[in-house]
Amino acid sequence: MTTLSADEVIAAQRAAVDASQVSSRHKLAKYAAREFSVAGEELYAVGHIFGGDRVSGVSPHGHGSDEIVAVSLLLRIAGQLIGASESLFREGHAYAAAALIRQMVEIEYLAWAFQTR
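Above: the chain's sequence. Below: its structure in token form.
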């Protein structure tokens, strides 16, 4: 584990409250939320149409590829979590926002589980 010097800690504290950096982080979060959501919606369409799951009868919901649809769901959930946490941070509800950010770890785990399957 890397230990930060006192100067590095002070610099990080200043960066955390610097108005221009806070604004940039909010803009990035809004952008990421939008792009994850759009990618998830587009991937859902691809997963519903393409793939052999529907033809072979293994998709209980009639998707072409249940795996692609599942990844699309992860992207859409991630987009909502990011967007909601940005709103909560902006409104001063840091604890609630952090709780949503922690849910991103679950999204990451599920994505890893899909990849290693």
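The chain has a mean pLDDT of 95.
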